[in-house]
Amino acid sequence: MVQRESRYSSYCLPETKVRLLGEFFRAQRSHKWLLCRVSPSASCINSSGERAPTLKRDRVSVFNDKFTGPQGAHRRATRRDRIRCRARSDAHDEPSGRGNNKIFLISDVHTDHEENLDWIRGLSSVDFSQHTLILAGDVTDNLEIFESTMTLLKRKFRDIFFVPGNHDLWCRRKEDNVTDSLTKLEKLTETCSSLGVLTSPANIGGVWIVPLLSWYHESFDRERDIEGYNIPPVHKACTDFSACKWPTPLSTSDDSIARYIDELNDENLRGLPAREQADCQVISFSHFLPRFELCPEKRMLLYPNLPKMVGSDWLEARVRQIHGEMGSATSCHLFGHTHFAWDTTLDGIRYIQAPLAYPRERARKQISAENELPLCIYDSERGGLLPGPFPARWSEYYRLHKREPDNQQLAPWVEPHYHHQSDTPAGGGS
């Protein structure tokens, strides 16, 4: 399909999608919303090769036409309305005069691991009590543990913002009583609302914090695949493809899930008041990656096909819509998912990840010290958004080295995990 070249050529979308996205965003700008600038089967392989424990029709979306008949339309409308209404009920606008305002970041807390839950229990109940936490997804797939985790955190922090990650939308526990991942999303949103955890944009101490729902799609990956090795495809390597349940016509075989989840942001963002201050601080966040440069090259990854299940082009379009195509000195987007600490600026927007990750990953944590978590990214007494970059091995590596997407030589720590197909039959390796 013909691709449209632009300043963001690395994000080229098919011509039709680019046109539709452009029309959509131009229409939204006319409403002045948030214009802060001048107007294996039982295990999931993550970025480090580790395995998780077993246990509106007329916008960007075209696939909605597949919902046929009044029942399909009703199901789509009511499900979205339930999620949006609960999210909107969380919104609030606080005055800026609340003393020193600090905002902390963490992602991928995975509290189905008792060690991680203990880590949260060990957080001070005093040091963070007047401050805000941004939790960028992947708490647990267990609704009971999710509620207890959020209850614990609410005792530590004054305000908490949350977006779900892929683990949060798994549907593999009968006791959760969910039929699919969209129902799970509704229950998570409902639980957050009941606990006072924020899932929609709000002004906290003069800072707008904007949660963005997202999901990944395989076409996000446009770098060359590693060839000649027995690397399993994503549908065999990642539990998401079996543990997440999506109603028809949503499918893991195309980008329909990413588009549907992205459209759930429409109502929340449209409800934001117009902002006229050219220097106002806005912090957006998601679980998934908005840009592929926020993940190491495939040859560096213990699972080289990881980039096919990490990010979304629609998410990056949202981020650029909020912060402006050119970004600014105060533009900041936070994310999670890959378990790689990261702090870099791309095309005027600063991107930060600060994961807790799995207990067994702590020894090789890519942020300088575990006691830096949760990571303070904003401090009003120190001038706002804290200067960076924060210590993060991979983003530091790419400050010093260019990406080499055509390099097919697996890194020394990766190659022992795979056999070359010329020597060993394909299969296994997962």
TrEMBL record:
Biased composition (Basic and acidic residues): 87-96
Residue ranges, compositional bias (Basic residues): 73-86
InterPro entries referenced in this protein's UniProt entry, alphabetically: Calcineurin-like_PHP, Metallo-depent_PP-like, Pantetheine_PDE
Gene3D superfamilies the UniProt entry points to: 3.60.21.10
Domain Calcineurin-like phosphoesterase stretches: 102-188
Positions of the UniProt region annotated as Disordered: 70-96, 409-430
Protein name: Calcineurin-like phosphoesterase domain-containing protein
